[in-house]
Design a protein that fits this description.
This protein has 3 domains: 355 residues, TIM Barrel, CATH 3.20.20; 62 residues, Oligo-1,6-glucosidase, Domain 2 (Oligo-1,6-glucosidase, domain 2, Alpha-Beta Complex), CATH 3.90.400.10; 66 residues, Immunoglobulin-like, CATH 2.60.40. It is 24% helix and 16% strand. The chain has an 8-stranded parallel beta sheet, with helices on one face. Strands 13-14-15-20-17 form a 5-stranded antiparallel beta sheet, covered by helices on one side. A 3-stranded antiparallel beta sheet has the order 16-19-18, with no helix packed on it. Bound molecules: alpha-D-glucopyranose and calcium ion.
Length: 511
Amino acid sequence: MPSWLKDAVFYEIYPQSFKDTNEDGIGDINGIIEKLDYIKDLGCNALWINPCYDSPFKDAGYDVRDYKKVAPRYGSNQDLYRLFGEAHNRGIKVLLDLVPGHTSEEHKWFQESKKAEKNEYSNRYVWTNGAFQGIGGHPYIGGEADRDGCYMLNFFKCQPALNYGFLNRTEDWQLPPDHPDCIATREALKDIMRFWLDHGCDGFRVDMADSLVKEDDENKSATGAVWKNIREMMDKDYPEAALVSEWSNPYQSLKSGFHCDFYLDHHGNGYNTLIRDNETPGGDHSFLKKDGHGDIFRFLDDYLPKYDNTKDDGYISFFTCNHDTPRARRTLGYDELKIAYAMFLTLPGVPFIYYGDEIGMRYLEIPTKEGGFARTGSRTPMQWDHSKNMGFSEAPEDILYLPLDPAADAPTVDDQASDENSLYNEVKRLIALRHQYTDLQADGSFEVIFAEKEAFPFVYKRGSLIVAINPSDQEARVSLPESASALFQIGDISLNGKELTMKPQSFVVCK
Ligand code: GLC
Ligand code: CA
């Protein structure tokens, strides 16, 4: 386990939209370098950058054409190596995004694989033996290549599935996971990882990490075996590098070698019920929405078994949002966001903040861009200040990658930095608090002290600290197990010995 993860607070950067330095309207690596001091000042000590590799951008870069080359729109490999160095000079780690399940249809492996003549890459992707043959229940394409076969897709049409084999085989074109050609796919992935790790990257966020071996068993043991093999390489040669999975099943991911696994926003899961329970009929019952009349057990019943059963294997990662998820500001106001982030930043595991969430950027209803569809509205340019294009770019406004928030009150870093009561300054104080108290960090113990159905507050213990949250619009009271005094608070609370009274929308950490 890389020791730095214990106190890591990540910042996710969607590179298209962070900072443009060459006036083409698209964010770039040099822009990230320019803003490293900002990230450090916020208190984040680690970055995850969405794919920045050469790509036709039919899925915003998750369709990789060349894993070892930075996309020209973002700069050069040299720029990225410089980013690693500049980040390290500031004590910031950098995770790249690794896309192991598929490539772009324009990747040179696929160009070879689709040829009629057999070659080294024929089995790099999943193909049937005939152009008229479907692929079980999986999406596939037939009739597009000279090769007489259909190929499997892993996501969009542009993303053919790489071949890590099939566990339960029913057809002769399905190779076993230990077939030399499937092992070759895994080794090619390791080669890509080594390339970036050797150049100074600190690990990877792994895209669709559960999608490798097909017809896997319900425990995903064959896919897990691939990751265990990769983790062996990491432990041996890169023990301080981190692996974070997009999997959202810590039993599987953390036991297969991942250090952290995201708690993704899946309708009805514990995370979803905290801030995005707005698809259930009957209104928004998110626990952290002030008038949601939420129920903390919808979170705890899902989270606690996951946490209890995996806490010795790795970390569950809470996030404010990501590039696939609607920004929380869509349904929550600034005061609600303060309480929500306070909770995410005082739970165990390794937290992630999505760029712009520290100022409460909005989700915009805008047309799709590069395969974003509904996700596009969460990917708009960072709002730095009130200069041209809100400080994102000097380019003409009509060539910006995506439009800026047109609202008169669109939040900016500049405005919020000078306002002590802003969301930005609250986030900054919360991150500083987490860095100050090891009990609040990834490894600190977690124990629920007070949770009652449809009642507030929610109180938990982290090590020797007590955290109490009243997200509701009603006053709430509770008796703590022992006398305590407040060391950090949001909103109004009063604490007399053990008796804690919390005004609406308040949060406190006591000792
Ligand atoms: C992951 C990414 C998403 C991408 C998909 C296919 O879910 O987060 O943005 O479109 O995988 O690579
Ligand atoms: Ca640019």
